[in-house]
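help with these tokens:
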Amino acid sequence: MPSGASTSSRRPRPTTSRCSRHPHLLPRSPHERRARPGLAARERSNQGARQEDPWPESGLRESRLEEAGSAPGRQASQEEKSLTTEATAVSPEDVERAAHDLRPYLPPTPLQFSRAFTDKARCHVHLKIETVQPIRAFKVRGALNRITHIPAPERRAGVITASAGNHGLGVAYAAATFDTPATVYVPEGANALKVEAIRRLGAGVVSAGRNYNEANLEALAFQKESGATFVHAYNDVHVIAGQGTIGLEILDAMEDVDTVIVPVGGGGLIGGIALYIKERRPAVRVVGVEPAGADAMHRSIAAGQIVTLERVDTIADGLAASAPGPLTFELARRYVDEVVVVSEGEMLRAIRLLFQWEHLLAEPAGAAAIAALLYHHRAAPNERVVVVVSGANITEEVLLRALKTR
């Protein structure tokens, strides 16, 4: 079994490192939360998708979006205005608080200069390596931050989530950290290595539905019966703030970064990173990357409203979202400069090059940002680019396919 899928069954122990560069990351007084509009890509292609409400009733106020409210030319309703207010309620201070809260459990991940990719891309390339996380993927950040915000009596009732894999691993790890029962609903045919690792961490696994959305509906139904707390994979303010700590670490480590390239699934990762970076250093460009067979965020930004794909088809199971969430869509629309689309072949070649040049293992989602850098990014002279390598939980079959590409 690849090392990227291995996890320990013992309870993780906190480290003693502190966030010394951020003395303000202490309990704060209430503050006014605002969002400054950033640049947004306006792509034209929007064929093969339908515009509708992808968020059935879920018990989460921020997870509701009325289709009629997105109709062009119609005045926003009070509910829509409330949704927009909640979507922009994730603040850079929330990300800083998350960094403070997570520091005892997760030290900062490496930001490593790559000579090989610098020469290939003709710009200064640094890799933000999330594959060293205890679950070998960034998702542990958001899951831990969410569970730290659940009161102890409620944690004893357990947590429930739906996941294609890495978020389930993150929730299982966070639940083990706090001795909390966890149940993870996964779609049929989910990555077997990820499912096995979730079980090893002590979480229950339920296979339900043909895709993430169907598994999510089953998880929500069970949550209402059980009374456990539902932890959404991306459409949650605490999850988004946790993922945004990657952006904080990037700005801490590099004072002169020009561009950050981030993979996009449901949008929690890019939402948190873009929010923090754009609020703290507005000149930095934030570029999202989606697979061609799962480009819901790309289409949604182009349409100006959430678009749900009829079909998702990609080897990047970590990016296989049929629609962004209301929260993540609003953040991406406000803060993300551009969303580019990469092919399956480009992701496979990026996996091979990461392995051969940097001796790093990456799953397709983890290599998507490298694919965008190599095949879709026009570098400016002396541009300083950070590429987020988001996860390493790759199956043997996909790795062998990648190593055979040229």
About this structure: Residues 237-253 form the longest helix (17 residues). Residues 1-85 have pLDDT under 50 and may be disordered.
